[in-house]
């Protein structure tokens, strides 16, 4: 019976074997166990010569699927992991890093940049959340601009608020990409999150 169906090799081939039985001695005393002699060549207690290099664990030494960068793996091809589909949360449809792509949702002429990313990005929920939030927030801000267009003072104040909001959301989209946290604005963030979860 195979109790380890996901292992590459059987556990019996890599398991440490029991020591051979002790040779018969003339005395009836049990032998004293001795520790192996200390090696004098290595003085660092944290040094381990048995650990492989990090490149040992990678299937492709040049990066993910031959491309260097952040999140450009094509999982449908099954190139990584020997034909098994692995889930890569940092994968994007476009050949752009995840954090840069999330920032583009706010920097690429909002709300048009968010709508463009909603059309082009299909794999990353993180980028799609920021695209939805950017589209919703800056569409509402555009409507507010139209309502208060009669006053140049109010229009400039709203424009400065727009720039501050773009900077704040862009900074959080970039910083939170490491752990995929979402900064949800009050009303629009929850709405954007529900849209992404429903997809």
Describe what this molecule looks like in 3D.
This protein is mainly α. It has helices spanning 11-14, 98-107, 112-120, 125-147, 152-175, 188-198. The longest helix has 24 residues, at 152-175. The chain starts with 10 loop residues before the first helix and ends with a helix. Mean pLDDT is 75; it is low at 63-86.
Structural features:
single chain; 199 residues; mainly alpha; 6 helices; 0% strand
How would you summarize the topology of this molecule?
Layout: H1 11-14, H2 98-107, H3 112-120, H4 125-147, H5 152-175, H6 188-198
Run of helices and strands: HHHHHH
- The computed structural class is mainly alpha
* % residues in beta strands: under 5%
Q: Roughly how much helix do the residues carry, as a percent range?
A: 40-55%
> Could you give a short account of the major beta sheet?
none
């Amino acid at each position: 019976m195979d109790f380890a169906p996901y292992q590459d090799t059987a556990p019996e081939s890599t398991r440490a074997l029991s020591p051979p039985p002790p040779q018969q001695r003339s005395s009836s005393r049990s032998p004293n166990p001795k520790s192996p002699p200390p090696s004098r060549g290595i003085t660092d207690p944290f040094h381990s010569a048995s650990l492989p290099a990090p490149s040992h664990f990678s299937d492709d030494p040049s990066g993910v699927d031959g491309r260097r960068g952040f999140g450009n793996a094509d999982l449908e091809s099954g190139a990584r992991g020997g034909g098994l589909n692995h889930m890569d949360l940092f994968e994007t449809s476009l050949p752009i890093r995840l954090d840069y792509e999330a920032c583009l949702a706010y920097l690429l002429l909002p709300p048009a940049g968010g709508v463009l990313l909603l059309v082009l990005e299909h794999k990353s929920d993180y980028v799609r959340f920021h695209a939805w939030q950017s589209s919703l927030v800056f569409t509402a801000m555009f409507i507010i601009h139209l309502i208060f267009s009669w006053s140049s003072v109010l229009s400039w104040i709203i424009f400065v608020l727009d720039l501050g909001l773009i900077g704040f959301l862009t900074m959080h989209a970039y910083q939170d990409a490491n752990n995929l946290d979402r900064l949800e604005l009050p009303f629009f963030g929850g709405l954007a999150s529900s849209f992404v979860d429903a997809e």
